[in-house]
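Researcher: Next sequence.
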Amino acid sequence: MSERILLVEDDDKIRDIVIEYFQAKSEGQFEVIGAGTGEEGLELIQNGSYDLVLLDVMLPGIDGFTMCRRIRKTTDVPIIFLTAKVREEDRLYGYEIGCDDYICKPFSFAELYAKVNALLKRVNKTNEDKTIKCGSISLNTVSLILTVDGEEIELPPKEFEILCYLMKHKGWVVSRETLLNRIWGDDAYVETRVVDNHVKNLRKALKDAGSQIKTVVSKGYKLVD
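Model: Next structure:
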């Protein structure tokens, strides 16, 4: 299962090299999606889900600092700045608004890859042992115990995996295609309407809490508090 990385960088050459390097080095472990502006990056985030964001600061239109602040309003996805702004006050400000690392240009692609790999491993390990809460829904990702308003509920495997993914990306719009790839796998010949059927069953099993799963027309689903 690949991890999705959003790279927001207006330098076409740097963007292309990072994408090619990561996808070749990881042998398919990383899927890197590129954006050339802050506006494009925010649109991709609003309409999809990512495991990490690589973010330039000096972008046309919406700059990287502004984009970081907006991202932090809805998610704690790891963010690494890639920037030519090398002053100490800029680096400190980046950490203040929520970045996880701050890398100054020019940088080593090998070192960047190592930092991304280490950060994702650390985040994934941390996420393994915690309870995720969203509204009346509580899910322990280690014991796999799901409760709604304190009542333990059992779900079929696919419904459980869908809920787990939505809870890990709560507040994000998750497309049907993303759910297919993450839960059924890239090689599964399953149509998107199958996802709709499982989400319908999931809502029913969650009873009143099922209303927390919102349908975003032509986009997918979003779990809200």
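Model: The chain has two domains: 3-129, 131-223. The mean pLDDT is 89.
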